[in-house]
């Protein structure tokens, strides 16, 4: 039996595209590298179907979008152990996110501000201390902070 995760703003956009991976990197090493940033739901390295060799590209899906944001900040430009080149970490393109979707998004009206409810706070388990909470947010903009001391 497989259980689907409920859809919400907090999990949308939690999929990352990683390029520049060392050809020798295993999926287990990829997970180990990215697990410092949050809970990983799925991971994948792409391999050439004919040679079986890594294409140096992979995907990581985190439980929450803010975990993916942390991974981009920490690991984009990072040189993995044993590698000579940095990796590129960015959000994976969602289906239908091409030029037409971008044009439609640009033409859409701005969202109306709403009051933040307790259920709107994301990745709360990663927040070690809260200094202030903003009481409004706009549409797709989500506040997520990871404070380290």
UniProtKB/TrEMBL annotation:
Keywords attached to this Swiss-Prot or TrEMBL record, sorted alphabetically, are: Repeat, RNA-binding
Pfam families with a match to the protein in the record: RRM_1
Is Plastid tagged as a keyword?
A: no
Q: Could you confirm whether the keyword Repeat appears in this record?
A: yes
Q: In terms of domain of life, where is this protein from?
A: Eukaryota
Stretches assigned to the RRM domain: 14-94
The biological processes this protein is annotated with in GO are: negative regulation of mRNA processing
Q: Report a single Gene Ontology molecular function.
A: RNA binding
CDD domains attached to this UniProt entry: RRM2_Hu
Any single Gene Ontology cellular-component annotation: ribonucleoprotein complex
Q: Which Gene3D superfamilies match?
A: 3.30.70.330
SUPFAM superfamilies referenced in this protein's UniProt entry, alphabetically: RNA-binding domain, RBD (SSF54928)
What is this protein's name? RRM domain-containing protein
Species, as recorded: Macrostomum lignano
